[in-house]
Amino acid sequence: MKKLKALLCVLIALAxxxxxxxxxxxxxxxxxxxxxxIGIDEDAPGRYSFTFQTADVAKDAKQxxxxxEIKSTALAPALREMDRACxxxxxxxxxxxxxxxxxxxxxxMGALLGYLFSSSNVRRQCIVAAADGDAAxxxxxxxxxxxxxxxxxxxxxxxxxxxxxxxxTLSMLHTALAQGEGFVVYRISTAQQQSVSGSDAAGxxxxxxxxxxxxxxxxxxxxxxxxxxxxxxxxxxxxxxIAAANDDGKGFFYRVDRSECQTVCSIDEDDRLVYDIKVxxxxxxxxxxxGGGILPDTPExxxxxxxxxxxxxKLLERSRGELGAAALGLDSAARCQHYRWYCxxxxxxxxxxxxxxxxxxxxxxx
Length: 366
Description:
This protein is an alpha/beta fold. It is built from eleven helices and 14 strands. Strands 1, 2, 3, 4, 5, 6, 7, 8, 9 and 10 form a ten-stranded mixed β-sheet that branches. It has a four-stranded mixed β-sheet with strand order 11-12-13-14, sandwiched between helices. A hairpin with a 5-residue loop joins β11 (241-245) and β12 (251-267). α3 packs across α6 (170-178). It is globular. The termini are far apart.
């Protein structure tokens, strides 16, 4: 009996050690295919070209990443084809960015974001961006680091001060769609030209503008200048250029050093939506028309504010008439400040916003 008890104790002890061997099914890092970026372009009506950028972890790899192009009718079968094409199993846990080509900007974003969001192995904090042309061209651009990671890093760094980059992730865009709101996707270009601000460029990449979506789909584009101005509707902007003129009509350019924005949303007695927006900009002189020589009289702060107010008013007018509230984040402002009212009027919000009243106050300090 004692021997039987001793044997049982030994067997139990051995059984308890089995869970400690947690690496029995481990896959080495160099035996996985890590997808860093996915580019999507239209190949033909109803058919797409998917560009998968993967990390090359081989010791003798000449490039940090390589791309594989697969043509399919949807992302799901393209991923299955990618699995068959690669030597090792593919994984999306390190996905940095999803890039939409210009040819697919008007496609069903809800279906794409929904599929990615529901996939268990997709990194939901990946950045969603648009290409100012073909996504494949963007991801095939050379460089010291994979373009998919460059895009994500540039956008995160660009909006780090105002913490807006989190609004451009797969998770937040999917949430916006689920709540019936719109969103903005930055448009990335490979053009080697001077960017609007120093913070919106990295290597051969730059932010060329933004694509705007409302609950119905694609609503329009903003150019690079409008994209910079749109950021002033959230606090903490640290880049951008303001153009102004002095009494003699000479042009001056001021760099945005810091900004604050206060937005108060209310409903008046006529059930009209009213926004009271105050933007305060701290700026410094960057350049003037002559480009050198003796510095002429600079514009007063009120002149700079008047110039900026005119630019922002035009953007507000375009948002009410074409782009929608998402271009300036004014739909989320209404939802946060009047949640019950917003939920009751969500389906009619685009029309309500088009008739909204905006009171804009600009203060510039140099």
